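Page 37, top half.
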Amino acid sequence: MYRHIVTLLLTVFISACGGGGDESSDVITVSKPPKATNVALKGSEIDNGIQSGQEVIGQYTFNSASIPPGLDASIGFWETESGTSIHRGLKYRIPRDNSLAGTRIRFCVKPFNRIDRKAGKKACSKFVLITPVFFDPSSPMVKILSNAYTPEVVGGELLTFIINKNGDSVDGEHGFRWKRNGQIISNENSDSYLLTVADEGKYISVCIINQVTNTLISCSEETNAIQAAAGIMPSVYLEPLSAKVEVGQNVLLDYHFIDLDNDKEDIDTTSFSWFVDDNLIATDQSLLVDTSMVHKKLKGCVTPYSLTGWPKSGEMTCTEEVIITSIAGDLPRANNVAIMGHRFEGKTVEGSYDYFDPNNNQETASLFTWSIIKNGQETVVGQEQGYTLQSGDEGKGNKIRFCVVALNNQAQGIPACVTKNIAWVDGEGDFREGGAVTANLKGFPEFSQSYWLSEGHQTPELPLALNTTPNTVSTLIVDDVLPDFINLKPMKLCLSFDTSLLNSDDICREIPIGKKLSRFIAIDGDKGSSAAININQSIITLDGFYRLYRPYTWSEFKILPSEIRSQFSSAEASQLTNSQVEGVKMTPEDANKFCLLNFGAPGVASRYIHKYNGVGVGLMHGWPEDLLSQDFMVKEPDGFFVDSEEKFSAVESNEKYAFSCMSIVQ
């Protein structure tokens, strides 16, 4: 049933992403973001809470303000009070194991217009509480020991006590599960909890677990918001201004945030001030010096703010005053040199600058130079004002440099340069079932929304872990989006610079393999190795007697210990059409030996198991269609090897074939 629901959602999304050809001819006279109204959970009884194991259904009204009217391709999803997405789709069945009991959830809609691809603002229903299944009022209740007149503070310890319905203390062994804003806190399973900086401003609760059945008994109420720990106010070390500040220069407040309590900086709140002769003239981090400031005193100041701890703000720290001077000499110069545009492969960036000449001579043909810096080596790649990034320019740590030499009919200035990081992304975390991956971005411009993408041939693309907050990327919780992963296909992070998704101006980059990313499978492509998820490596057959293993890939075979690989001299990569995945082929005897050594008897999969549990329905397991399109060899009950086609003719003993393995379920 679950697979059918997913398939239906996929079908809907294919339509929503422009699968048809008629809509391209529509003339959009008015294009506005749509709205979702009347967002609610179906059924009036829902307001009183929902029980573990119950199916809930979301509903809403789609409102298009575009002309002609748009078609609904909205994305519905379910989230907790902390904003964590737990499911996508109109229907959601609450886990029956009470793993979400005590949590409040709601149904949300991101309205999306199929015609003009406009996305509106997220709209959500009210939160509803999930209660445990088979709740027994006589069951023990857990409470957090608290004092209404003393707020819980970071660094303090929360203690628990367990009582019955009469308020009497209850003895016995219980397991504990602590939650922060309704989400389980990893590795916190004792009867007390020490509050950390991560808890500041959050709400803490605790649940008790029956250690025999491993089911939830009850959960406490949430605490009030955890208060910040009092400590030392933040401060900054401020780099001094240049002793020589001239007209036309762009000066910057370069500072280092300091907090002896290890609190992080609130970069959105830290403030800047510029004073000329003690008069406040600007509140940006940088300042363009103009002729009105000549011979006056200039100083810049920073007031730091921290995200956590108390007090939040520090004292204003200022540079020493410097005297602004006019430009010495007669050379023209390029001020405020910058690189404009998105620094991605295939994108064109433009160099910009402000020409200045103390003698008011007009600029003629200033000189430009573009360089790419890799591993500390600089290579000149262009001499125009614009440059299109080429294949190979992107790479971890690579930079792009633009230099300009101001030129007029009277003189030539000295080079003025700016260096920027070329956009690069990598992943950190466990890329596996039960894992999570965060993205580390460097050199990226500001963007409107982000999403993850798992791609496959002939497979519709679904945005995963969509985040509509500007310049923010959601952590990819693997289990939340597992049904939408395309197995053994590279995972991509995509950025959108407008309100539309999955269109040609979105920037998508495969997540490369790296030291901070684990539990992935490497897929070799034109631009290096990328990380892909490896799920459902084996499945139980329909009769329940055998375990069938997904056909091996060449990447998996290559990382086997050498003492194992050396036993299969016939092994070679199976080249697949238009695929980054390579299969494995062996002679029949080597293939059977490989299966027996790695998985046990019977060895190579039989004809029946191969057809009705493997390749024939392999896509249901999330197995790549590339691997399943090979010419397979199977083993008959009498031990003979035949091809997997209907004719079942014997295979050649010295030829190499694709195969899958099977073993007996223990």
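Page 37, bottom half:
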Amino acid sequence: MITRPNRRNTGTRASLKAGLLLSAAMLAVALSGVGEARAFSLFGVHLWGEREEEIDNVQDPVRYHVTFSVTGGDDGLERFLRNRSELVNGENQPVDGDLGLLVKARDDLQILVGSLFERAYYGGLVNISIEGQNIEDIVGLPNFDRVNPVPVTVNIEAGPRFTFANIDIKDAPPEFDPAKLGLVIGTPAYSTTILSAAQDIVSKLKDDGHPFARITKREVIANHENATINVLIDAEAGPKADLGPIAIKGADAVDPEFIRTYSRLKAGEPYSPQELTDAANRLRTLKTFDSVVINTGDTLDENGQLPTTITVKDGKFRYFGFGATVSSIDGLGLEGYWGHRNLFGHAEGLRLEAGVSRIGVTDTLDSLDYAGGITFTRPGLFHPSGMFTASLAAGTENPDPYNAKTVAGSVTYSYEQNDYNTITLGSTTEYSHIEDAFGTEDYLTFSLPVGFDRDTRNDALNPTEGIYLITTAEPAYDFLNGTVYSSFSAVGSTYFSAGEDDRFTLAARLGAGTIVGGDSLEDIPANQRFYAGGGGSVRGYAYKSISPRNANGDETGGRSYVEATLEARIGVTENIQVVPFIDAADVSADNFPDFSDIRAGAGIGVRYLTGFGPIRLDVALPLDRYPGGDRFGIYAGIGQSF
């Protein structure tokens, strides 16, 4: 479904991708079977039953049984080693032949020894035997008895935990304090700490402009008499360097000069790995290239600069797609789109789209929501950090408070001030024919929206830290009615995480807005007033149903609003979250909220974390339901709710 971006409408429609419906159908089929109980997995997660052994690709399957024991060490050592052991983790899957079992055991020996080093046990002993024979004594091709699973025994003696005794970092700047690198005398000498320290030294030298920084020597000496470790790290910084001329390779349809400019890399600027990474990511976000790689030379050129090359591979410029959304309250929606990502050789974008929604919740075609539009984008116009956007959209919208037919054209220019801040300027002209609680009216409005956004989230679809702030000021004039008014709004979200791997995330959102000007509320077009309710607002209430009402109980929309949401995203497994939440809002006909009609909804949701974002399913109840309002709402989509 296509809508003109409008931050004044605080409620957004919830959506459920069609694939979820298919998954639900498959689950229903799986549950309908009777008779023998079978294993079942959903989205790759094993839910119940015995896992089926994958032996199709094993020509000579050999099953085995592991006896695993650890003597000594800290409380969590045995669990840590079991998790690392390939023999233990693969016990339910047969290996290919007797030799395959022997090879797996020998590989596991190296893994377990390295794992002991990770936990600072440098004097530990790992013994692995098969059918009572130490694997180091097995010569030639083995021949195991396969009447029963082959017995494999893993015995580990941890020994003492080693600590750092002496730290020597040579040829590194004095700011490299070993303690800041985790190398503290008297603390456990984890091998991972030593490796990380060496990597940190090289990274910091490169960040300081030394492209050829490297570790020339890393020596770890264990003293088994007193269980200590001496560490020697020898670093070589090499010369500082500036970037040389930026060469472009592989660009067939995209102007090389545009690539060079849009990357924001300039010859003569100091070498910075972060700047190179940012430049590559910036080019990838254009979605014009299949691949973007930035390489630097192994030596400096004759001018003492670092040769730098951007290598790209053009992608498929034309694309199309279809989508479906569904909600228990707002019905079914269908959409389709076609686009081009490189119209004139500067990554210009063109997108045509059309959609229809509210299928199933209305009996007439006139009551459906229709939308269509065309959008043109030109990245890097006037400045590498700029983006020009022009769009034309038309549609009908029929939420409970009003029926609107609109045609709107807009031009915007956004400027990325830095990695986090974006400033947007624009102009919008919109004609609308609206039927609402005040009657029928036509509007022809011209507005000048100004926006400032700040986004420090670590992940747009599944944030666990950072903030996201959207602010807008939009003065407007209605030519048909001579009304001058201005809208101001701000919405901020923040995230706090705790626990292992950020398993617990507390997310909070607060929004507020006001409209000033106009002699009365009806002078403001109904589709530009404030409302709340829906999957992106107060869940449990219908889309835009939270609103001031007239004497007949009809929604009028408001001049101001305040809205708050609090969620606790609790990871119960690596991929599944349980999310209790509460939403609340107050929408007022006055310029400032009077908090006389606060509506709240509460519920619980489930998130399944995937590589393309969380799959979201929420069930919410209105805590103060309107007469005749929905008793609950079900919302689904891709990504967290905010």
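Margin note: The helical segments are 18-32, 77-84, 86-89, 97-118, 191-207, 256-263, 273-284.
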